[in-house]
Amino acid sequence: MDGRLDKIENSLQDLTVKMDKMAELMGAVIRMEEKHVSVQYRLDNIDGRLNKHSQTLDKLAIQLAKVSKSSGTNEWFIRLLIVAIVSSIAVILRNG
């Protein structure tokens, strides 16, 4: 009968060791899940910031296009003004 009790005791010890290993594994899984949640939160935060920067860049691109168009018009106006002034000086010098 002692042999049977020894086998049962050994089996119980093996089960205890396996249960301890399972508890350690579950703890590791829980820690990994917590890290995953933390990383996902950080990624969501980064995505939000990137979207905000993207919208800002879009607004700046629109403003740049408007400024470029108006500066191009201003540049042509200044060129025409210079041509008019030079032409006026040339006419005054010929006649004067």
Written overview of the protein:
The chain is mostly helical and 96 residues long. The protein has one domain. Helix content is 98%, strand content 0%. It has one helix and no strands. The longest helix has 94 residues. It starts with a helix and ends with a helix. The relative contact order is 0.04. The mean pLDDT is 91.
Characteristics:
96 residues, single chain, mainly alpha
Set out the fold topology.
Layout: H1 2-95
TL;DR of this structure?
The protein is mainly alpha-helical. It has one domain. The chain has one helix at residues 2-95.
The H/E string reads H
Strand content: under 5%
Strand-pairing-aware structural class: mainly alpha
pLDDT average, as an integer? Answer: 91
Low-pLDDT sequence parts: none
Rg measurement, Å: 41 Å
Separation of termini? 138 Å
Put simply, the count of helices is: 1
Summarize the biggest pleated sheet: none
Helicity range of the residues? over 70%
- Count of discrete domains: 1
Q: What is the general shape? A: rod-shaped
Number of strands: 0
